[in-house]
User: What shape does this take?
Amino acid sequence: MAETAIFHGVRIVLPPQRVWSKHAMESSPDEFTEVHVPDSAADETMAQDEEWFNVSVDGEQRRIRFHDYGVIYAVPGLYERIFYEELECRSPKTVVGLLKQELERVGTDPTSLTALDLGAGNGIVGEELRAIGVSSIVGVDLLPEAAAAAQRDRPEVYDDYLVADLTQLSADEQRRLTERKFNCLISVAALGFDDIPPQALATAYDQVLPGGWIALTIKEDFLTTEDPSGFQKLIRQMIDEKLLDLRTHERYRHRLSSNGEPLYYVALIAVKSDDRRAAELVS
Assistant: This one.
């Protein structure tokens, strides 16, 4: 039976908790045949970016950290198997769903959006954007394995895909971004953990035209005053200094941890309300 919880006055229905154990997969066209996500309950201090799983790939037993994305993307279907089937990730549908609601509320047609997908990975978020009607999407990610996986798994999603470090853009990479004239930025479960720093988010924000939509999701711990990552300070400054007009926000269950406990993130939907550069806030 589903469990009900109240957070910040919002009623949230959670699915039954799962007990993680070895799961032998049926024969599959993918290269992996067995996945084991260990129960980390015995080590309650394990950080989110330290979680790991065992998998058999082409007959070889391997131990892979959840955040070793390049290794995971290289195996077709493994990312979806771990994060969506085993850990029940909800972030792409949740964030894109909130964006869709806000677009409908103000009468903006999703087909009018040209979106920059920051931390695009293998294209799951881009696929959700296409599903609501977004007509043009550019992905950007640090990892060449992510770009290769997006092309392999979802070749019709992106109009362009940059493998780039937004804190050190080349002249050609800057040109490819600028000429798109983005009116939407989305970044889902990609901020923090040394994957995308605040400087990269600020650079991505600066690619968006005034009046454009900003859809972000971030681990709730990164929005506390004790946050060492810098995201709390940057996002708070962007709101306080009117660079962002916050339209809605929601605390939600991102996914389960390896011991079955919920991990909560916060989704923010806003409009870029000023043409000042966010990069100046983190310089």
Confidence is low (pLDDT under 50) at residues 1-29. Residues 16-86 form one domain. Residues 91-106 form the longest helix (16 residues).
